[in-house]
């Protein structure tokens, strides 16, 4: 099992996070702890005037899968808005075999992305590194660690909405 889950690609990604990654003046921060595995993820972020991620820091005390997922998010997040991130999240859910959640999310995106919307996110290409996480598809107990970076991110973004 360990060989299948913890491939060389996963291990390499998990080593890319900086344990002291912090922003000097984040607009929002959020920390989450997995009730399943005990992994802890902290996110700090700032948005630009177009509500796109302009600065981002993530720290993970998690298994290699959680750290790899966090590293993938960290690698691609700058310049994205929440809808574009939700597309990647939905693609990750599909990779992990969580089809019902993916269908529900896709229906919400389809409603938001009509032909009249110039900011449509339906043409976004999946981040190639997400495929490395497919090895965990048959291990649902590992899914919470993989999804933890997104829980932290969406928590931080939600805090920006509240006054």
UniProtKB/TrEMBL annotation:
The organism's place on the tree of life at top rank: Bacteria
GO function terms (MF aspect): iron ion binding; iron-sulfur cluster binding
GO biological process terms on file: iron-sulfur cluster assembly
NIF system FeS cluster assembly NifU N-terminal domain residues: 27-109
Name recorded for this polypeptide: NIF system FeS cluster assembly NifU N-terminal domain-containing protein
Organism: Sphingorhabdus lutea
Lineage: Bacteria, Pseudomonadati, Pseudomonadota, Alphaproteobacteria, Sphingomonadales
């Amino acid at each position: 099992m360990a060989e299948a889950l913890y491939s060389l690609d996963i291990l390499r990604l998990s080593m890319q996070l900086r344990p002291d990654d912090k922003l000097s003046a984040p607009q929002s921060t959020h920390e989450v702890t997995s009730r399943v595995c005990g992994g802890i993820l902290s996110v700090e972020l700032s948005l630009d005037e177009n509500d796109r991620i302009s600065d981002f820091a993530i720290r993970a005390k998690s298994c290699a899968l959680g750290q790899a997922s966090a590293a993938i998010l960290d690698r691609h997040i700058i310049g994205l808005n929440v809808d574009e991130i939700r597309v990647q999240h939905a693609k990750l859910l599909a990779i992990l075999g969580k089809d019902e959640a993916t269908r529900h999310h896709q229906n919400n995106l389809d409603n938001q992305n009509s032909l009249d919307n110039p900011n449509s996110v339906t043409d976004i290409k999946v981040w190639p590194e997400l495929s490395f996480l497919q090895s965990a598809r048959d291990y649902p107990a590992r899914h919470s660690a993989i999804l933890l970076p997104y829980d932290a991110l969406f928590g931080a973004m939600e805090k920006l909405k509240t006054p």
